[in-house]
Amino acid sequence: MAQSTNETTLRPVFEEDDLELPVERLRVEQPAGRRTGCPFHDVREMLREVGLRPTRQRLALGWLMFAKGDRHITAESLHEEALRARFPVSLATVYNTLHQFTEANLLREVAVDGSKTYFDTNASDHHHFYVEGQNELLDIPGAEVMVDRMPTPPEGFEVARVDVVVRLRRKQQS
Ligand SMILES: [Zn+2]
Residues within 5 Å of ion ligand 1 by Cβ? Predict the structure, then answer.
């Protein structure tokens, strides 16, 4: 993951503008557009703002992840969506892209347990419910979680943020 964001500055800028993007193939339901309404333009802008080179993969994957509004995805689910949209990309590329977007603060990583990592297209501060057994991550609305006593961080550290994952299970029938 170390090679991720720095490549932008190290390589000559080649924006691949002349390449044909698989826009048509990627069209799905209407996006929840919060910017210009043109998702590809928005993703390109978004990448530019954070200094990531708008490569074909980043544009296509970025469009796939952000065009449906706020949601939680995994590398596997995004990979599947890409293949379904006939955008041939390897799972490794999907992983790399997700991590690059996360480092650029376009996504937020939510690690539920050792094996399951979700990426949240809503990078703002919020907490989550996790439905055990269903592998489902849900936003906890608004300010419903209160962390009333912060632990004192070790010398030389400060608290960067607090991620709360509240695990849920179905009530037992009695
Ligand atoms: Zn969320």
Answer: 120, 139
